């Protein structure tokens, strides 16, 4: 390939830009692979899926990390000790969309700190120590839509601090120290603001005339827990308001309500007046002024039962919340007028007396919440609610369930019975709940399921029996639950699983048996029979232990052909049995298994055949065991593995990975092992690795880890999680240093840089050489002879030789005849000059170029006898070159050109220099045959007589310039 590069602006005009483009590409690649631009951050993790996220929450940071990559879209630095944000902290993060900084100690934000965050959409500065918001604080956040400033100490807001937040939709200022609603004026007028949360401040009045006289786009306003004395709306400034929270507002029942026109808040559909400090009359007038579209009303902790009547006269009301109102008895009358309500919450009322007809007038009750109500049995009042879909009876003191408790609830879909005292379940209890799809019986005292799930409940999808006292899962226990997908049996005392315990659960996807006392003999093929769809089996924290490295007669999971996730970590051990084994065919049949968590099993060895049945395995966690080493063969059957976690074992080296062939592993976590150094070969054997976590290993800080240090800092594919925090464990005098602070320069000569520089220079020189040759060929050749001539010139000068000859005659051998017959007799014979002729006067044995130079310099003049042949002869041209050098060098007119033949210009053109000489200088032409030669000889004589004049001033020959 010929690379043609023109350096001047002439010629091919586009080549120069092409060159600079090429150089830019070179530079770009150099920058890209520049060893100082690593991938990992000092104190944070980078997560890169579709976008780049930086995670540094809870790392005890005192300042915003300085090494956040520029392409980041999300940064989480919550829960640190950062006390201020500096103007350069988030410089140039032009792609950042989410910045999470809650729970720090930020009290000061320098002006313009966020000004580069043009793409930021969410900023969370909640739970900090900000006291005021300054004018310039949020400058530049043009795209911010959500701003969270709750739980600070903000008491003042500069009038233009929110000025440019054109996109802001949601602002949370809950739990601050704002006391003047007027100060929020400019916030309320933000063009995009939809939701404003200013609960729990010190605002004592809202008066519309102080805020605006035109309408505001707000749809949601939370004013709860402010000591509001007056809420006054005298103009239609909230026409779009849908949700208004005034709960716990006012003090001492004094809050005043002044809404001039009942149409002003006519769009409000959700209103919370819970715990409001207002007179009964006041609340009544509130309800009357908001009765166009009100659908949801909160009247918790208000303690005034005559309000219910007023509320229920709002024809659009559907959802009514009446928590914690101390209605210890609910009579027939209380809810009589609430006929249109569909969603009723009377939790937390300590109801002891609930009239059977309490809900009778409610025609279409769908959701009824009776939690925390002190009920000791399912009340009669709920029995005939045929429209009911959700019933919450949680957190009561119900001991038993009767056959007719739910028998009429044919449409019930969700039933919450958690946190009661139920110990026994009759077979008839749930029989008629045909539509039920979710049943929660968590935290009761159930010992025995009896026949509860052997009939009915054919649409049940989710059953939670966690935190009960079951000890035995009997055959056919869940026989009729043919739609069940989730079964939770965690935190019971299950010891026995009978054969066929899960028969009928053909659709079961998740089975949670976490935290029981199931032993190895209970996990048998016959137990799990029929679980065709099971995807996740969680048997962590049980008592599964195998003493010997046995091969099981009948592996337990052979029926679970759909199982994808198996968790068996943390099995309980007695102090007499510290070691366990995992049978080599334990996983047989689990063809689809993709995740296996087998940490904390007290095993010291894994048979190389352990995973031969699970070729789809993607994620493996075998942490907290006692492996000192693992065999590479263990991993050969699972080539798809992506995540490997072997933390808190006793591993001393990762060398087993070299031959493990784990070409897909992306995440490797080997925290808290005994790895002292990391071998280069190991990490090269994991070509897909993107995250390596080696926290809390006892690293040696010497040259054995030099490679790892450099790699951790510089490689652009794998981040070493929190690498900058890895301490040196050895040698003792470096115990306070960090591994990455190790000075690796003394460990090796950096051959890479050496090679880089030398090859680059070589390439550049070659390029330069060819350019120069290509463009300046003649100059180069000339310079060469110039140089040679210079050498001889200096020699000659040293010798101080006087001119030995009058003229050196340069000619081609073919023209010797003319020289000998015509020139020699005339010049030496007639005119008496002493000539130097190469055939006569050259010293034999001397290099030819030396002879030529000598001859030229020993002669006053050089006569070039020019013919076609002369020009073709290489040596003759060189004589011209050297002579012209002398001309150039000594500024003497030494050259006499004698043209024996007519030579047209174009034939001279290849002899670039000659042509220039002829054009610029003088020459003599030998007359044509028959013409008189006397003038010629005379001119030649004059030319030979001329002494040492500067070339241009030759007075005689100027007349014969060739055009
Ligand atoms: C700001 O948001 C708009 C709309 O979501 C988007 O088109 C634009 O690219 C964003 N600007 C920046 C700088 O990300
Ligand atoms: C606003 O902050 C309060 C207090 O932390 C919180 O309870 C509420 O959910 C927040 N609202 C939004 C929309 O973030
Ligand atoms: C390791 O993987 C390579 C390529 O996938 C394969 O050719 C080779 O046989 C594997 N070696 C072992 C021991 O499985
Ligand atoms: C890395 O491991 C390979 C294979 O075990 C071994 O040959 C090599 O010497 C080790 N290199 C170092 C620096 O320990």
End-to-end Cα distance, whole Å, is 43 Å
Small molecules bound in the structure, each named once: 2-acetamido-2-deoxy-beta-D-glucopyranose
**CATH level 3 topology of the domain at 771-953:** Rossmann fold
Mean pLDDT, as a whole number?
86
The number of distinct β-strands equals 47
Approximately what portion of the residues adopt beta-strand conformation?
A: 5-15%
Q: Any idea of the CATH class of the domain at 771-953?
A: Alpha Beta
CATH architectural group of the domain at 771-953: 3-Layer(aba) Sandwich
Q: Which sheet architecture does the biggest sheet show?
A: 29 strands, mixed
Count, helices: 16
Helix vs. strand class: alpha/beta
Spans of at least 5 consecutive residues with low confidence: 1-38, 949-963
State the fourth-level CATH superfamily of the domain at 771-953.
Answer: Toll/interleukin-1 receptor homology (TIR) domain
Principal-axes geometry comes out as: elongated
The level of helicity is 10-25%
Estimated radius of gyration: 49 Å
Word description of this protein:
With 963 residues, this protein is α/β, with parallel strands linked by helices. Among the domains are: 38-203, Alpha-Beta Horseshoe (Leucine-rich repeat, LRR (right-handed beta-alpha superhelix)), CATH 3.80.10.10; 771-953, 3-Layer(aba) Sandwich (Rossmann fold), CATH 3.40.50.10140. The chain has 16 helices and 47 strands. The strands form eight sheets. The chain has a 29-stranded mixed β-sheet, with no helix packed on it. Helix 8 (751-799) packs across helix 13. The model is unreliable at 1-38 and 949-963 (pLDDT under 50). It binds 2-acetamido-2-deoxy-beta-D-glucopyranose (4 copies). One 2-acetamido-2-deoxy-beta-D-glucopyranose (NAG) binds at residues 148, 150-151, 170, 172, 174-175, 197. Belongs to the Toll-like receptor family. It is found in: Cell membrane; Membrane. The chain crosses the membrane at residues 753-776.
């Amino acid at each position: 390939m010929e690379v043609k590069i023109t350096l001047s602006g002439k010629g091919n005009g586009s080549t120069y830009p092409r060159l600079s483009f090429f150089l830019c590409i070179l530079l770009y690649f150099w920058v890209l692979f520049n060893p100082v631009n690593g991938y990992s951050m000092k104190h944070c993790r980078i997560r890169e899926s579709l976008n780049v996220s930086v995670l540094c929450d809870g790392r005890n940071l005192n300042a915003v990390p300085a090494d956040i990559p520029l392409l980041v879209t999300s940064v989480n630095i919550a829960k640190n000790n950062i006390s201020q944000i500096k103007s350069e902290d988030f410089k140039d993060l032009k792609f950042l969309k989410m910045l999470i900084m809650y729970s720090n100690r930020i009290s000061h934000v320098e002006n313009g700190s966020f000004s580069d965050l043009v793409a930021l959409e969410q900023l969370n500065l909640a739970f900090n120590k900000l006291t005021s918001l300054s004018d310039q604080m949020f400058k530049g956040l043009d795209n911010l839509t959500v701003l969270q400033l709750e739980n600070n100490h903000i008491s003042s807001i500069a009038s233009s601090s929110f000025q440019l937040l054109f996109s802001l939709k949601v602002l949370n200022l809950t739990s601050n120290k704002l006391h003047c609603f007027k100060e929020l004026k400019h916030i309320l007028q933000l063009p995009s603001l939809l939701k404003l949360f200013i609960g729990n401040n010190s605002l004592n009045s809202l008066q519309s005339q102080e805020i605006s006289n035109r309408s505001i786009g707000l749809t949601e306003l939370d004013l709860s827990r402010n000591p509001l004395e007056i809420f006054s709306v005298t103009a239609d400034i909230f026409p779009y308001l849908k949700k208004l929270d005034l709960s716990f507002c006012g003090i001492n029942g004094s809050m005043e309500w002044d809404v001039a026109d009942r149409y002003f808040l006519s769009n409000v559909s959700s209103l919370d007046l819970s715990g409001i400090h207002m007179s009964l009359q006041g609340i009544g007038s509130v309800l009357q002024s908001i009765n166009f579209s009100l659908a949801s009303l909160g009247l918790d902790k208000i303690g005034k039962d005559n309000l219910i009547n007023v509320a229920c006269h709002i024809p659009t009301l559907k959802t009514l919340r009446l928590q914690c109102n101390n209605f210890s008895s609910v009579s027939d009358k209380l809810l009589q007028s609430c006929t249109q309500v569909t969603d009723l919450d009377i939790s937390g009322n300590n109801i002891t007396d609930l009239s059977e007809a309490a809900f009778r007038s409610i025609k279409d009750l769908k959701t009824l919440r009776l939690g925390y109500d002190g009920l000791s049995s399912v009340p009669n009042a709920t029995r005939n609610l045929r429209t009911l879909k959700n019933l919450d009876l949680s957190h009561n003191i119900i001991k038993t369930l009767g056959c007719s408790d739910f028998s009429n609830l044919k449409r019930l879909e969700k039933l919450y019975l958690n946190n009661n005292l139920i110990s026994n379940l009759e077979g008839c209890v749930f029989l008629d709940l045909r539509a039920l799809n979710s049943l929660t019986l968590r935290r009761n005292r159930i010992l025995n399921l009896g026949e509860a799930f052997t009939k009915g409940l054919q649409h049940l999808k989710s059953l939670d029996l966690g935190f009960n006292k079951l000890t035995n899962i009997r055959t056919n226990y869940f026989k009729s639950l043919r739609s069940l997908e989730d079964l939770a049996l965690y935190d019971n005392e299950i010891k026995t699983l009978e054969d066929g315990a899960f028969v009928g659960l053909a659709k079961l996807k998740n089975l949670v048996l976490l935290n029981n006392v199931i032993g190895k003999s209970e996990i048998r093929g016959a137990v799990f029979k029929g679980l065709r769809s099971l995807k996740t089996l969680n048997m962590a924290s049980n008592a599964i232990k195998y003493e010997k490295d046995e091969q099981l007669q009948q592996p337990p999971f052979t029926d679970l052909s759909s199982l994808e996730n198996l968790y068996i970590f943390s099995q309980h051990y007695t102090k007499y049995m510290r070691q366990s084994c995992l049978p080599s065919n334990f996983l047989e049949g689990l063809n689809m298994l993709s995740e296996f968590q087998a940490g904390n099993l007290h095993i010291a060895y894994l048979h190389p055949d352990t995973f031969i049945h699970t070729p789809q395995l993607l994620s493996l966690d075998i942490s907290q065991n006692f492996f000192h080493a693992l065999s590479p063969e263990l991993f050969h059957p699972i080539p798809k593995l992506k995540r490997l976690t072997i933390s808190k074992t006793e591993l001393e080296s990762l060398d087993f990975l070299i031959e493990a062939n784990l070409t897909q592993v992306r995440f490797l976590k080997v925290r808290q092992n005994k790895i002292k150094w990391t071998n280069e070969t190991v990490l090269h054997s994991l070509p897909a690795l993107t995250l390596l976590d080696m926290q809390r290993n006892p690293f040696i800080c010497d040259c054995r880890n030099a490679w790892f240090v450099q790699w951790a800092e510089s490689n652009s594919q794998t981040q070493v999680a929190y690498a900058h925090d890895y301490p040196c464990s050895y040698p003792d005098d470096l115990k306070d240093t960090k591994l990455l602070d190790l000075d690796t320069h003394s460990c090796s000569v950096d051959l890479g840089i050496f090679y880089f520089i030398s090859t680059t220079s070589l390439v550049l020189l070659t390029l330069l050489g060819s350019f120069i040759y290509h463009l300046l060929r003649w100059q180069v050749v000339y310079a060469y002879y110039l140089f040679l001539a210079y050498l001889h010139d200096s020699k000659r000068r040293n010798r101080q030789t006087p001119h030995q000859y009058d003229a050196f005659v340069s000619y081609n051998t073919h023209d010797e005849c003319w020289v000998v017959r015509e020139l020699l007799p005339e010049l030496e014979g007639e005119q008496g000059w002493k000539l130097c002729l190469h055939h006569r006067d050259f010293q034999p044995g001397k290099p030819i170029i030396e002879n030529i130079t000598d001859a030229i310099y020993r002669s006053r003049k050089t006569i070039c006898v020019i013919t076609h042949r002369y020009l073709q002869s290489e040596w003759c041209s060189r004589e011209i070159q050297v002579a012209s050098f002398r001309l150039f060098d000594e500024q003497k007119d030494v050259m006499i050109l004698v043209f024996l033949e007519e030579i047209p210009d174009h034939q001279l053109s290849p002899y670039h220099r000659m042509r220039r000489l002829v054009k610029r200088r003088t020459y003599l032409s030998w007359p044509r045959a028959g013409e008189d030669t006397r003038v010629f000889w005379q001119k030649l004589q004059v030319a030979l007589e001329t002494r040492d004049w500067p070339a241009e001033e030759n007075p005689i020959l100027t007349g014969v310039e060739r055009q």
